[in-house]
Amino acid sequence: MIKVPSFALIILFGCSHLALGQQSHAPKNLYGLSAEDIQWMREATKQQLGGCRVRGASDTWLHTPDGIGNYKALWTRDFYYMVEYAGDLMDRNEIKASIRYLINGHRDDGCIPDRVNIQGNPVYSPGPEQKPMADHALDNGPFMALLVCSYVNQFGDEALFREVEEKLKMGLDFINRDETGLVFNDPANPQCPYGFTDTVLKTGHLLFSSILYYHACIEMQKLSEKYNVGEPSIYRKRAELIKKNIKTLKDKPSGMYLAADIDCRQIDIWGSAYAVQVGLTNQAESKSISIYLIENKDQIFMRGQIRHLPGSDSGWDKLFVNIPEGKYQNGAYWATPLAWVVPVIAQQDVELARQIIIDVIKDFQANGINECINLNYLNIPNYVASATNVYGLIK
Fold first, then answer.
1. For the domain that residue 305 is a member of, what is the CATH number?
2. Model confidence over 2-18: pLDDT tens digits?
3. Which domain holds residue 93?
């Protein structure tokens, strides 16, 4: 039974601001969590953010993906999630320095780095530096734009936006799109898709990468208009084209969206929820996706964490590298997408949304904050984005 408490709209409104980098305006304790859980999650997130800092080139403090500093690079997408959902726990000057550290690594063709290592060398594709999986990742440019916009929205740094807007646009221009405006991954020369599925060989029109592109254009348009920088109409037109054509990836029987339309033509749980959260769906579509998540909760959730795929799919159809089913990006359960999945569930069932947060915090307390989990399996303890993206729901 779908439950819609009278305060559901208040909760949804507050969480929508979280997705737009306006955390300071959100009401407190949106899900009625205990003071103990809120305090524990805040302190755990601070610990992860403190532990992940390592010195990079030019003595720049870098926030690496794991909370004990084993990674020796600054990843664009991970850093965006940290700043977006936990920027209030971070040092403004360190964020700004890291933004420059990343964007200064852009290639002459506009390609934004996947990451920049502690020596200051940019790396453009996921995978080992000496054996990359592709030329680049298709989310690098949008995540860089979203990172800067999130920082500027939170700290009001007009000067930085003016400084980097042109490079951000170059990063967006570099991403391959076709006449539909959607991000297109050529099967003859595939690049890595959204970084939390960068081992998955999705080709054709891509859902998550296109939504990221849309979200980046919306945020760039807003700041370009606010500060009279660049050409806001370019970002607006690109976003409108994606909104018009994203429906081509709709899976009509389920009401969800497909991850891609050539290889890996499978329902994308994370991407469908993200489409709702950034405003790409109408009211009926949003309701349908929310209800799907609720009705399939037993197949897609484990201990408050969620897999990429529906329960009917044990793994992805095609991968860049061999990953056993049920592990890592091929069927494990993650906390990262809860930042946008939970608010979508809350549209129709606030109590379930609350219970998911309680369950994931309990798992963090009992088993550590991991990148992903499954039965008798966990990967990368002390994973910072898992902490920050849950913290963004409870602050």
1. 1.50.10.10
2. 444 433 433 433 343 33
3. 8-394
